[in-house]
Amino acid sequence: MTPDTTPDPSHATPAGSVGSAGSATRWARTVTNVLQPRNLILAAAPGIGLATAGDWTGVPWGLLAALCAGLIPAGYIKWRVKRGAWGDRHVADRTQRAPIFLVILGSIGTGAAVMLLGGAPTGILATMLALWVMTVGLLAVNTVWKISVDAAVASGVVALLSAAHSPWWLSAYTLVAAVCWSRVVLSYHTVAQTVAGTALGASTAAAFLFV
Question: pTM of the predicted model, to two decimals?
């Protein structure tokens, strides 16, 4: 007797659900790629430099911050991915993330030293310090738990923009929420991991307020 291979309607996945899930995943991937740490730092750092200096002379210092905190770490990750060490920029295995944090610490530290020697505005130096301390926190937590770097950077950037420019920038936390949502939908993090990253980014950026 030929077995009945007709799908059980009670276990079938509605076609609309499949489409909705696929659409959510596509949107989440777009959000996580557009609002990744490198892009946010590149977009925000020159503006923070401008605000802290009070004129255009702060823009080059902001660009230096973007180079050290955004471009160099992203370039290192891309290089490791090309060498086959990691699958993609997300580095899903937290035990492989320590080298990234060490490169970020070294890069931001070097940039801060150049700023100090070059007489950069205090505000942009405080920004670098906030990012450095945030990275230390990420490294420490990452030894035992997979905290969200993307959420931390997004939160830190918005908090820094709010301190440097206007509290109205706090409304951009809607973008931070979008980043957190995307990381959870794509299964890179849990809700708790994104919330922890958001809190860490905001708290370390708060150091800017005491400068």
Answer: 0.88
